[in-house]
Amino acid sequence: MNRKLKIALLTLLALSVAGFGWLWFAPCGMGGCAPVSDLDQYQAEGSELLDTNDKPFGTLSTVNRRVVSIDSLPAYLPNAFVAIEDRRFYDHGGVDWKRFGGAMMANVRRRGVAEGGSTITMQLARNLFPDALPYTERSIRRKVMEIRVARQIERAFPKKKILELYLNHIYLGEGSYGVEAAARTYFGKPASELTLAEAATIGGLGQLPSRRNPREDRAAARKRRDIVLRAMADGGYVPVAEAEAAMKEPMRVARKSRNPKERGSYYVDRVRRELEEQVGERFYKAGLRVFTAYDPVAQAAAESEVARQATAIESGAFGSFSHPRYTRGKGTDDDRGTEYLQGSAVVMDARNGEVRALVGGRDYEDSKFDRVFQALRQPGSAFKPFVYLAALEDGIAPTRRIEDAPISIPLSRGSSYSPRNYTGTFDGPVTMRDALTRSKNVVTVKLAQEVGMGRVADQARRLGITTPVPNNPAVALGSAEVRPIELVGAYATFANLGKRVTPHLVRRVESRDGEVLWEAENEGEEVLEAAEAFVLTTMLRDVVDRGTGTPVRAAGFRAPAAGKTGTTNAATDVWFVGYTPDMVAAVWFGFDRPQTIVRGASGGTIAAPVWGRIMQRVYAGRGAPAEWAAPRGVLTETVDRVTGLAVAQGCPARGPTYTEYFVNSRPPAEVCAPAGSYPGYPPMALDTAWRDEEWGSTDIQLPEPYNPDTVGMSDLEQRGIDWPELEAQRRRGERPRAPEPGSVEPLPPPDPYTPPPAPRT
Q1: Which segments of the protein form a coiled coil according to its record (predicted)?
Q2: Which residues have CB under 8 Å from 105's CB, separation 6+?
Q3: What's the confidence (pLDDT) of residue 100?
Q4: First and final CA of the chain: distance in angstroms?
Q5: How many angstroms separate the CA atoms of 428 and 440, rounded?
Q6: Which mean pLDDT values do the consecutive 10-residue runs of the chain (761 residues) have?
Q7: Each residue of 243-264: b (16+ CB within 10 Å) or e?
Q8: Would you call 344 a catalytic residue per the annotation?
Q9: CATH code for position 238
Q10: Are 494 and 512 in contact (CB under 8 A)?
Q11: Among the four residues 374, 504, 611, 691, which has the most C-beta atoms within 10 Å?
Q12: pTM, full prediction
């Protein structure tokens, strides 16, 4: 080895030994000591939440911090922390050098500070002095200071007292500092009454409590609990048989107390989670100012309209309801969720991803599970836009005619897949535009097969869907589960004509002195061609204006809007996901334990009207947004709705005409031919909100005999939907003038919202 290199290595080794020697033996007079004498006086101070108008609407502070004696706790509770956090706690003097050395080697291999090797004493030092040892700083400097303070604590207190301090100061999620607060928060009892399984659950929250919260992710909490129990058994703290018995216990948590009349409970909880991930738990005690996108008008609209519709469903307004009602089903929340009907809604600024309103369920106090950010549900036909986007990207024009006829797709092991439409009937050739407008299943599957399910899955992933999208035909109709917030984010990309944004609630965090500690990035990323997103938007506008989403208009919302209904197999999930030029929102109804809501339920009849009423109230005080402007690369042509061909000059059209949009190319012109030589096209009377041709909605009983030109009006009237002008046009076989692509006139702002009368008691 080179002599100079040897000298350098020896010098580095000497300095390291000297440094650690100083850490271990240096007196406080040389500096670096922390005021450990006042550890019992630690207190937490909450942070203020401000809405989109910078007005306070809530506070995040400690839920419950009570100091308890270690002698009052069951022995297995402190032992759970020792077993999983620091198994050599009683043998070291503040630093587990064997573990610390392993962590340092891992950091060298990863060329950064990835592992810390912190002991219980070092964690206590970090919790007691967060300003000197900031949570967000992962550096050698902080680790050296942790060791220094840990050594001070070890000199000042015996092991039992150190462990007691740790158990009273450690942050365990949901604003809980210490095991007593955590026991009351998660299990509704003092720490002295915790069972072995409950103690192991709390013991597993010492690291990443937001990700192992038993309320928010019971599977992750159960997995961590079992790891703690195994560690306790391996360390001899509990017999193996007792640990195995505790692993079999279900994960049950107490309902969290919060004023049920307080708005935005789900919103506040999501803000808390974002802050935990961005700035750590210090926001509970640092007196920060948290600026959010919370819109009190949108929140009030979303909460009241979801509650109003859920109550109407339970009352039988949409058909016989045979499930437990909310009033009787409260208190049934467990690993499988609640027994009663649930609903959720989210409103987001499409331009930057700021979430304005969030309703994660019907009752926060009864069920904290956030069905917007955490749930995995089948989207049904709300997934179809990904298929049609892939088709547009593949050069298929909206006027392309596809045969709506039976199809059988071979699968593995000799089986096959045969999608069907809502009524089991087929309409022959239909254009791609009308197939999406009318939510035609068979045509959608054929398109997905033509462009390839891999392309469809790629589109979904590019737009922010992170859940698995299997390569099978049924996925085109929305059989793969998604997180609702990710679906909303994908639709925001359509609204932005190609720019993807990240959903978030917190805008920025400031210290009490006004220093910006963290700020969200709202730049977005261009992931789609603007022309393709625009043409898809014109197709989804047809869904709202003359397709399965017409109840949005019947509810009174007149501003430019596009979107898609969704109904899953046996009507277990009903959706409407839609957007305007500046807002995107989603509404969902279903059961945590999937089952048919009511016979005949669909996204068009149940979810779409709620979306329309929410958006009407959101825009009541701000006016309608400007129309989408056609970007570069979009061409227009007058086409024949029957043939999908451009109308040639001097050649009479075979059916109604309209202005169609194309990406970079126009369709071929129509060749004049004798009348009657073109196949007929089914009248648009078939395309009604009560006849939602979506995936798997096969349980609906149609009247006998079924006549699509007369059925439905009474159903709409019973549901409070009254749009006689549109219905009259349909009966005459006319096409509504305003909704035609390319001819939509600017709509006046909606009338000011008038709240419905309070129900009589």
Answers
A1: none
A2: none
A3: 63
A4: 91
A5: 11
A6: 57 54 46 53 66 90 70 96 91 77 54 61 79 58 76 88 91 88 92 96 91 90 96 96 95 69 85 86 73 97 97 96 90 80 98 97 92 96 98 95 94 88 84 94 96 96 96 95 98 98 96 88 92 98 95 96 95 97 98 94 96 97 91 92 78 82 80 47 34 46 39 40 43 39 38 42 32
A7: beebbeeebebebbeeeeeebb
A8: no
A9: 1.10.3810.10
A10: no
A11: 611
A12: 0.67
| Domain count of the fold of the chain | 3
**HEC readout, 337-405:** ECCCCEEEEEEEECCCCEEEEEECCCCCCCCCCCCCCCCCECCHHHHHHHHHHHHHHCCCCCCCEEEEC
Is 178 in contact with 150 (CB distance < 8 Å)? Answer: no
Q: Is 727 a catalytic residue?
A: no
Q: Are residues 216 and 309 in the same domain?
A: no
- Give whole-number Cα distances, 134 to 113, 438, 659, 681, in Å: 14, 56, 61, 69
Residue 67 sits in the same domain as residue 56: no
DSSP 8-state assignment for residue 607 = I
Length of the chain equals: 761
Q: Which domain holds residue 538?
A: 44-61+265-623+679-761
Q: Is the dihedral of CA 200, 205, 211, 215 positive or negative?
A: positive
CA distances from 634 to 397, 435, 539, 660 (A): 12, 21, 14, 10
Asked if residue 139 belongs to a domain, the reply is yes
- Domain end marker among 247, 273, 308: 247
**Do 55 and 66 sit in the same domain of this protein?**
no
- Choice among 85, 174, 274, 281 that is catalytic: 85
Q: What is the dihedral of CA 382, 386, 391, 397, to 10 degrees?
A: 50
pLDDT at position 145:
77
Give every CB contact of residue 36 below 8 A, 6+ residues apart in sequence.
128, 149, 152, 153, 156, 157
Element of type H or E holding 331: none
Q: What is the largest CA-CA distance in the chain?
A: 105
Q: Which of 118, 265, 344, 381 is catalytic?
A: 381
Measured CA to CA, the distance from residue 557 to residue 543 in angstroms comes to 14
- Angstrom CA distances, 102 to 96, 136, 141, 227, 730, stand at 10, 22, 18, 21, 74
Determine the pLDDT at residue 126: 79
Position 632 in a domain: no
**Distance (Å, whole) CA 176 – CA 194:** 16
For 678, residues 6+ apart whose C-beta sits below 8 A from its C-beta are 642, 643, 654, 655
CA 260 vs. chain centroid, Å, equals 22
Looking at the fold, whether 453 and 596 belong to one and the same domain comes out as: yes
**Structural element, H or E, at residue 636:** strand 634-640
- CA separation for the pair 576, 533 (Å, rounded): 19
Q: State how far the Cα of 719 lies from the Cα of 569, in Å rounded to an integer.
A: 22
| 3-state secondary structure string across 9-30 | HHHHHHHHHHHHHHHHHCCHHH
Contact call for residues 194 and 187 (beta carbons, < 8 A): yes
Q: Give the per-residue pLDDT at 423.
A: 67
